[in-house]
Design brief:
Length: 148
């Protein structure tokens, strides 16, 4: 993660601040701190992608990768807004999304970050995709009961 977002980056600082002050981060300001939420959302998007736990369709291109990261950032934004008791200013949601998207683009534009992230979850060459025995496609039992 440090290769993408250094510990002193605004995104990492926002993530650390929200993580350490989870229960009262929203009480410091009368409205939601947009830069704090967007920075944390960007950080969490990359963190979630690096983990790969819920990545079902592996991105093949930079635009697909950016789309996945934006979706992850939107999830983090929604979670932060839902947990906040502060009001969101008019137009705040779109500004937060825009700032998070800008941060994601900046990271992907830096060096070879996009290529590294695309290669991270790509299947190894020469390996065929296999289905496990628990897969839905492996049940070959015929359907005998007719539905009315």
């Amino acid at each position: 993660m440090d290769r993408l977002l250094a510990p002193h980056s605004p995104e990492a600082a926002a993530h650390n601040y929200l993580s350490e002050n989870y229960f009262d981060w929203h009480t410091d300001h009368p409205s939601v701190d947009e830069s704090l939420v967007s920075g944390c959302a960007s950080y969490r998007a990359f963190d979630r992608y690096l983990g790969g736990n819920d990545l079902f369709l592996v991105p093949r291109t930079r635009s697909e990768l950016e789309s996945v990261l934006r979706r992850y950032a939107y999830d983090a934004i929604h979670n932060a807004i839902a947990s906040s008791r502060s009001q969101l200013q008019t137009g705040g949601y779109s500004r937060i999304c825009h700032l998070a998207e800008e941060s994601i683009r900046d990271v992907l534009d830096t060096g070879d970050n996009a290529e590294i992230l695309l290669a991270l979850h790509r299947p190894k060459e020469g390996k065929k995709a296999t289905h496990s025995s628990q897969d839905c496609c492996s049940n070959t039992r015929p359907i005998t009961k007719m539905l009315k």
